[in-house]
Amino acid sequence: MAALSAWFWNERFWLPHNVTWADLADPAPGVEYPKASHLLSALPLALGIFVVRILFERFIASPCAFLLNIHAASVHWRATPNPILEKVFTSITKCPDWRHLDGLSKQLDWDVRKVQRWFRQRRNQDKPSILTKFCESMWRSTFYLCIFTYGIRFLWQCPWMWETQHCWYNYPYQVLTPGLYHYYVTELGFYWSLMFSQFTDIKRKDFPIMFIHHLATVSLISFSYANNMLRVGSLVMCVHDASDFILEAAKLANYAKYQRLCDFLFVLFAVVFFITRLVIYPLRILNTTLFESWEIIGPYPSWWLFNSLLLVLQVLHVIWSYLIAGIAYKALVRGKVKSACMRSGPV
Prior knowledge:
Elements: H1 2-8, H2 11-14, H3 21-25, H4 42-67, H5 83-91, H6 98-108, H7 112-126, H8 130-155, H9 159-162, H10 178-197, H11 207-226, H12 230-255, H13 259-296, H14 301-334, H15 338-343
Helix pairs in contact: 4-8, 4-10, 6-7, 8-10, 8-12, 10-11, 10-12, 11-14, 12-13, 13-14
C-alpha cells in the first residue's frame, strides 16, 4: 500500500520542477496550503446536501408548487397487468416496432392497436409528475443561484478575477483562505450528491453526457485542489454556475404555465450560456491555463492532465451549444419555448 501511495503521489507528476511535497508540508505560522485529505470532508457534506434537498423539496418546493396550483396528477389510465407484455417492456423495448407488435398481437390474440395502447399507458405510468419535476428544478435553481452569488462575491475581491496571471504567481506556494476552501468543498459536495442522485432523479435523454460531465467536474475539482490550482479552479466553477440557475428557473416558469416568463428566461439562459461557455471560458480560462501558465511556471505532467480535463469540458460545451441552438431554433419557428425547457437537462 505504501508503494502504491508513493507511486500515485509522485512529486514529478503532481508538482512543478524543483518543488517537493516536503516544501508544502511545513508552511509558515498562520499559513495553510491545500491537502488532499481536505477533500474527504466533501463526502459527508454531499450526504448533508442530499438530506437538505429532501427537506427543501418537501417543506419549501412542494408548498410553492401547491400555491401555483401544481399537483401530483394521478395516472387515470393504468395499463392492465399482463406478464408477457410487462416482460417485453422491462427487458426488451418500451417502444416496440411493427415486428414486435405483430408478434405480440398474434401471441395474445389482441388487436395491434390494443397492444400499442397498452405500451403507451405503461410508459405514461413511469413518467414523473409535474410536481416532481417542479421540486427538483426549484432545488437546483436555488442551489445554483446561492453558490453563484457566493462565488461572485468572493471572487470580486480576488486579484485573479481581473488579471488571470495571478493564478500562477508564486505557484504552488499559494495560501488556502477559508473562503476559497468553503467554496471548493461545497461545490465538490454538491457534484458528488449529483453523481449519486442522478440514478434516482428524472431520467433525461442526455444522461450519458451528464454523467461524463459530473465525473469530469468531480475529477477536475479534486485534481485542482490536490495540486493547489484553486485560483483558476474557482474561476472555472463560477463560469459554469452562471447559466445553470436560469435554465432551472425557465423550467419552473414552464411548469407553472407562465409562458412569457419561460420564453424570456430561456432566451436569457441561451445568451448567458453562449457567452460564458463559448467566449469567456476559452478566451479567459483556457487562455490562462494553456498559455499564461506555460510562460509563468512551465508545463509538467499534471499540468497536461489538468488542461486535458478542461478541454473535455469545452468539447461538452460545444455539443450542448449545438443542441441548445437547435432547440431554440425549433422553438422560435413553432413559437413555443416550453418544449425546449422540458427537454433541456441541467448543464
